[in-house]
Specification:
The complex is a heterodimer of chains A (453) and B (422). In chain A, 38% of the residues lie in helices and 17% in strands. By secondary structure, chain A is an alpha/beta fold. The chains are: A alpha/beta (453), B alpha+beta (422).
Chain lengths: 453, 422
């Protein structure tokens, strides 16, 4: 620890930092815990979609306090845990006033790590409806920035045929602590045609029980957290990393009762070797998480062909090659119909970053791959999505010089870096068999970092 | 045999020179790492195996239950029993046969055979005279008596006694014994150096090809064998001075194995168990034979495997040409050359009670991915290193491919075994 870092964390340093506005960041609610306070549900256009989904989750809800006039907004007597706004069915811009009426009294009442969840209709219809759809995004992003103490706001667009069953895993994810570091984001849920029977038991503690999932880059950092989190949810993990990382990889695999595969994912036969292992063990592959990635940072003026090629091959081209093999129906041990592919992008893939042209290209490419492949895989019920982590506290980011690191930590709405488990939980949500309606989506796990879109 | 015994796979830590990378690691640590890597490779965490057999040549007295203690440190179920075996440098092959034989007889269905040695963790004993004084002191009745006895300790008593590397019956080290054999069989410096160069180059090529990706797990951040010299050459080896056999000797540090640290483990199962549990199968354990020679009576210390090979091949009705691959442990490069010469020597073979010469080996089939000169030779681990490597090479050549393993050992002993790809 450098002198400046020690001084910063000393009692005196903490007082000075607090005076300068750098207060101790809030401790986020994580895991499968729901908000402590009640869930407030508002459906201005009379939609019952969210109400039905909450019922399937076994959660009760309360009616909102509305600000219908006067200078002083009415308040809630006590803290509330979450506000869920079912904004589906809104047709004209004046109806946005009804959202204001719900949100204004709630803004000061939401508990620490509480939630605002806005559910809106996917962009469709006339000019006014399209404008309204986009307006929801502006409301969501701003509410996320105004909320304090680790509370978040997120927006879910739903296609017209989406049922409460389709929405259930998304609503559970957003209400629970699993979405702790997902803030100010918007994504879409499509109709997946799941039956109510698929949700029996409500939000299962082990939604991945008995499913085999391959995780690349699983020896340490975010990949290790992914492997451990998915194993916690019941998955049988094939933990993959390069042979030199084998020692840490074996320890992770043994800890979670998984299998270690020492494999360089850029090997021409990497996909075949993963499939052969799965087939040899008599199983089938439910999902693959393409987490392995590297950085070889240089300003473009100094960036040679080797550093360029290495990053693009490991971070992007390798997963495309592996996907092709695993998706070939002739591949024994390949992905099953109804399977899952998850990529790991980065906020740099959205925003770019000086010194990271190669990395930004690869991570933006992951976003492109997700969007390109999703429609083509829909017929087989296979989903493909990606997470885009922001600043996550890992051994790698611990190497960033202190002041720069502290700035990166703080430049988001939650005033702190995320944990590897936050990325892992979002990936677990994608892998949930009930999340069949979530495909082609890229969710940033960044605490609403200022970088990028 | 009632049950087919199959090699599922193996794992070892990278081997390296004693006192270097693993200087702080004990036999217990190394063997735990080797077994944990094997457990991870085959998803066996928490599984109860029927038995683990392991051993070390250089072993501390408080490691009397080394393998069982390692099991308890490992990711295996604590209900997995274990046994310590020791047959000098053949330990890893003998533990393999111990587990294989139990499986063949139906006494076990699945087990691990292993071996470990650390010249860094070698037991250093106190001198006999110091031990006598300490015993007497602990038996003293009064403090005064005790002080009186302890006062007899002299600085010379405090010198530690390292483990003896010489043969107890002859007083000669293994290298000195091999030097006699080297001269007797007319093994030249060039023949030895060629074997050493091939060992390093073949091992380096195998590493570059990824051959060891599913056979080795890095340990303490060492990812490849530490003794390996990919740039080894005849010119470089020619510069080395003789280490054994006097000034005219042909054996050098370059064509003799280095004192090494490492551990290796093999997963063995019955064919039925492997199938039921969806474990891969590389090769079948066909047969094995152990032999000894009368080295105090003048026989070549490290040539016992020759007699074992002849009897094993006769029992199986096989000839040298039936083997796609042969692994002869490179205790010294000269051991390999002398062994191959002995196979061809009708008189020598008859003197061992064999019907005639064993045969001539096409050396392109010998130690094709390197052997102990380049890899290192942690005594008890070597057999458990060779078995899975050979099994994997045979599997790649297709069903029916046969391989022969020959390992010499201290005390004038040797073990040979046959694997066959399935």
């Amino acid at each position: 620890m450098k002198v400046i870092e020690k001084a910063y964390y000393s009692p005196v340093g903490k007082k000075v930092a607090a005076k300068a506005g750098l207060s101790e960041p809030p401790r986020l609610r994580r895991g499968r815990d729901y908000p402590r306070g009640p869930v407030v549900l508002a459906a201005p256009a009379g939609s019952t979609l969210v109400a039905e989904a909450l019922e399937l989750l076994g959660r009760t809800s309360e009616s909102p306090v509305l600000d219908t006039g006067g200078d002083k907004a009415p308040g809630y007597g006590d803290r509330i845990g979450a506000v869920v706004l079912d904004a589906t069915g809104l047709t004209d811009l004046t109806q946005l006033e009804e959202l204001r009426q719900v949100l204004r009294p709630a803004m000061r009442a939401i508990e620490g790590s509480g939630r605002v969840i806005i559910v809106g209709s996917s962009p469709e219809g006339d000019w006014e409806r399209l404008a309204l759809t986009q307006a929801l995004d502006g409301i969501n992003r701003t509410v996320a920035k105004e909320l304090r103490k680790g509370a978040t706001s997120n927006l879910v667009y739903v296609d017209p045929d989406v049922t409460a069953v389709d929405l259930l895993p998304t609503l559970a994810f957003l209400l629970e602590g699993r979405s702790a570091f997902v803030d100010g984001q918007a994504w879409t849920v499509r109709a997946a045609g799941l039956e109510e029977a698929d949700t029996v038991g409500g939000p299962a503690e082990r939604p991945l029980a008995g499913l085999t999932i391959a995780v690349t880059g699983a020896a340490r950092g975010i990949g290790e957290a992914i492997a451990r989190t998915l194993a916690r949810d019941g998955a049988e993990i094939i933990a993959i990393d390069i042979p030199p990382a084998g020692e840490a990889l074996a320890n992770v695999a043994n800890d979670i009762g998984g299998v270690a595969l020492q494999l360089d994912i850029t090997a021409p036969d990497a996909g075949e070797r993963i499939a052969a292992l799965v087939a040899g063990r008599g199983g089938s592959l439910h999902g693959i998480v393409h987490n392995a990635g590297v950085t070889r940072d240089k300003m473009l003026a100094n960036l040679d062909q080797k550093k360029w090629a290495q990053v693009l091959d490991i971070n992007l081209a390798a997963q495309l090659r592996i996907n092709k093999v695993l998706l070939d129906p002739a591949t024994q041990g390949g992905l099953v119909d109804g399977g899952r592919i998850v990529g790991v992008s980065s906020m740099v893939g959205f925003g770019g970053n000086a010194g990271q042209t190669n990395y930004a290209a690869s991570k933006a490419g992951v976003i492109g791959l997700v969007r390109a492949m999703a429609p083509d895989l829909a017929a087989r019920g296979i989903t493909i999505n990606a997470v885009a982590p922001g600043f996550i506290e890992t051994e790698m980011t611990q190497l960033i010089p202190f002041v720069k690191r502290e700035v990166m930590r703080r430049t988001n709405s939650l005033d702190q870096g995320g944990k590897p488990v936050d990325v892992a939980e979002t990936i677990g949500y994608f892998l949930d068999p009930r999340a069949a309606g979530v495909t082609g989506q890229v969710i940033r796990v960044c605490g609403q970092n200022l970088m990028g879109q | 045999m009632n049950h087919d015994v199959v090699v599922v796979g193996g794992n070892r830590v990278p081997f390296t020179k004693g006192g270097t990378h693993y200087a702080e690691a004990s036999n217990h640590d190394l063997l735990t790492a080797a077994i944990d890597g094997l457990v991870a490779r085959y998803g066996l965490a928490g599984t109860r195996l029927d038995e683990v057999a392991g051993g070390a040549v250089l072993k501390h007295a408080n490691d009397f239950n080394l393998t069982r203690e390692v099991v308890l440190s490992s990711a295996l179920a604590p209900e997995t029993p274990a046994v310590d075996l020791q047959q000098a440098c053949a330990t890893g092959l003998e533990t393999t046969m111990y587990i294989a034989n139990k499986i063949a007889l139906g006494q076990a269905r699945v087990g691990i055979a292993a071996g470990v040695d650390s010249t860094s963790d070698a037991p250093i004993a106190v001198s006999d005279s110091l031990r006598r004084i300490l015993h007497a002191a602990s038996g003293a009745r009064t403090a005064k008596d005790r002080i009186g006895i302890l006062a007899k300790i002299r600085p010379s008593h405090l010198a530690p006694v390292p483990p003896r590397v010489s043969e107890p019956r002859t007083g000669l080290t293994m290298g000195e014994h091999q030097a006699i054999t080297t001269k007797r069989w007319g093994v030249t410096r060039e023949q030895q150096d060629e074997i050493a160069v091939a060992s390093h180059r073949n091992l380096a090529r195998a590493w570059d090809e990824g051959f060891f990706d599913d056979l080795v797990t890095p340990y303490l951040s060492l990812a490849r064998d530490g003794i390996m010299r990919p740039d080894s050459s005849m010119e470089k080896l020619a510069k080395l001075k003789p280490a054994f056999g006097g000034p005219e000797g042909t054996m050098t540090a370059g064509n003799s194995t280095a004192l090494s640290d490492g551990a290796a483990a093999v997963l063995l199962a019955s064919a039925e168990y492997a199938e039921e549990n969806h474990l891969p199968v590389l090769a079948r354990v066909v047969d094995a034979e152990v032999a000894a020679v009368d080295h105090p009576g003048g026989s070549d210390l490290l040539m016992a495997p020759v007699g074992a090979t002849g009897r094993l091949l006769a029992r199986q009705g096989l000839t040298v040409d039936d083997f796609a691959l042969v692994e002869i442990h490179e205790a010294f490069a000269a051991t390999v050359v002398a062994t191959l010469k002995a196979w061809e020597d009708a008189d020598y073979c008859r003197s061992l009670g064999l019907d005639g010469p064993i045969g001539t080996l096409d050396t392109s089939r010998l130690n094709v991915n390197g052997s102990s000169l380049a890899t290192g030779h942690p005594f008890a681990a070597t057999g458990a290193r060779i078995v899975p490597s050979l099994a994997k090479m045979l599997a790649a050549r297709g069903p029916g491919s046969k391989g022969l393993i020959s390992v010499c050992a201290a005390g004038g002993q040797g073990v040979v075994a046959i694997l066959e790809a399935v």
